[in-house]
Amino acid sequence: MNLAEVGRALYNFIWDEFCDWYIEMSKIPMNSDDETQKQTTRSVLSYVLDKIMKMLHPFMPFVTETIWQSLPHEGETIVNASWPTVKQEFIFDESKQTMQQLVEIIKSVRQSRVEVNTPLSKSIPILIQTKDENVKQTLKENASYLHKFCNPSELIIDTEIDIPEKAMTSVVVAGKVVLPLEGLIDMEKEIARLEKELDKLQSELDRVDKKLSNENFVNKAPEKVINEEKEKQQHYQEKYDGVKSRIEQLKA
User: Fold this and answer.
1) Which of 96, 162, 216, 238 is the most exposed place for a label (fewest CB within 10 A)?
2) Are 125 and 153 in contact (CB under 8 A)?
3) What is the tens place of the pLDDT at every residue in 150-186?
């Protein structure tokens, strides 16, 4: 067993899935008036945290013992607790697929917001064109998550929608996510802002290009330093290409 890989897998699950997504999403039922949903959510949170503590125990024995003691549990110590096992009755493929679709849509909207410099606090219209009626129905049933994490002023989910001429479109597994740009941003101001950013990136590229084309630097600098400069060069070039492409899109 590779302990480093186990630790990395646990870290990714705990932070990227349990903390980043499930705990945040659980606030919706926990803040509702539905007592059944509240109890179900509390049970899931407690169950998952219990299993997390047991799997983390070999890596963090004292911390996990302390936390586990504060949870509903059986036995005197986590040391003697049984190791978590996979329960087939807790595997819900359809729910997993729905969650993946929701997460991808939310990430897409947030990325698009960043690209047009629109904060999450500002409500914007969001259109989602789905592949079929089943996906459409599933997204509508879970629209509360899209409202919480995307902050739409209007949310349209359908198999056929009229895509505005000026809009940002992202392709996801569930279909297309469309953000109309009309009234969302001042085109001229956004282009001016991006052109300034492009100038800054060009300056950084010129600086790193000059350094890497200097034979004295390349011959004398440690390999680690040279590799760091090459990474910077690639990073700046990718950002430059992205900003340039965005300007061309807005001007078009």
Assistant:
1) 216
2) yes
3) 999 999 999 999 888 778 888 888 989 999 887 777 7
